[in-house]
Specification:
Order of helices and strands: HHHHHHHHHHHHHEEHEEHEEEEEHH
Number of helices: 17
Strand content: 5-15%
Number of domains: 2
Helix content: 40-55%
Distance between the termini: 56 Å
Largest sheet: 9 strands, mixed
Amino acid sequence: MTVFAFHATLRSLVDSTRAGSLNGFVWLTPVAAVLAAFGVARRERVELPIHDRQTDVIIGTLGMTVALMVQGVLLSRYAQTFHLLRIDLIAMWLFLVSSSVLLFGLRPVIRFRWVWAMMLMSFPLAYHLSVIAFGGNQVAAGLASLVIAAAATAVSVGRNPGRALTGAVGAMAVGLIVLLGMNRLTPGAPLLAFQMIPALTAIVVVGSVLFLQARRGMSKRVLQRRIEPIANAQVLAGVPLVLAVAVLLSLVRVPVVESPPVLIKELTFGRPLAPPVGWHQTEQTEFTWAKRIYGHNATLIRQRFVADSGDLRWDKRAAPRTVVVDTTSTWRPFSLRVYPAEVLYDKSDSRISTPRPVDLGHGITGSLVTVVDDGLLLTWNFLSWTWRNADSAQRIMVAAVDNHEPDAPFPAPVGGLVATLRTLIIVLFRGNTATWDQDPTFKDEDLLTVFSRALIEAQLRHEERGS
């Protein structure tokens, strides 16, 4: 019923894993949980075969209600950061735990409480932050997965705190050896291999060694104790409620993944953009921290362009306008979906409008938004688009500010994950209207559209000359 209720979630996970997303680590969590549960199941059952069905129904129903609220309400609130947060996985965990309470009772669920708690590690945000902290490459992804392996091993072998600590440390050591060996011998292996192989190897090897050590001179049967019957004789009584909630959850749609960016095979990424006709570059900055977010060899380059001459359409005094272009290039294209453009900036004190599509030619559709900073009393218009070549992708953001002075401030990329977390909390408690500009003014739409079309033409001409 969990698979039925969250079929859209699972299909989305399959698609993102095939696309090379870091979220592929999620498949590790249920496998590690099953391995950990083997260790817990070997221990003698200590809870009394008593079940207060009234308590089971109250707690199970409450959990089901929260799962429905998370899936039905919060999921739409965080649509822009869907792949970063994956709140639907929290709803799936709540449904699975609550169903188990309704069907089998609270006591058996509590017996496996550390296994259930460990499964919360499938929530991606903490994993993504860990990968960024460890360096942002495939080794960092594998190292973050070893944290799950250590937790699973500790739960599996943890008859006492000492064995739990031994299991966790041993799993980290074995997993690290396998991870470093893979990085040296098979550096071109898929990202999912770095996430799964070292972690699962660590759990199996360390768990088996500690099992054999504990059973020296004794029977090596995996389950030497008698399998107790299910104490709850009213399992079927909870099925109608679980099935009804599963049907409701199956009707909730996950946020639609945007269509793939336009493919232009001759494009070359990772270098500054060529200036369009009628504009010249005055400043250029590269932010090396982008590698931690968008993967090894990723680049984030800011260029400031100034018009060669003024235009009355864009300034009443015909003063030359200034635009800023932030270009993110990555060889892990799905990371552009996981980390939307807003993650790069501190927008916790700003309001952003609903995106407006803009035709930029060559099959490219841009997204135009306005950002209002009530503290600085400034408004920026952003026009962005993404395109790709055979093995990488690039997102370009063009910004103009309603202050036409040459030294007018533009939002600077800061790798603002902390600020992004603050914004997410604001949205959680106050709703989308807290960060949403309900009455946007696109003053520089014409300027950004003309400039962006010229910028696209300049890159295509540059590639033709280069070839």
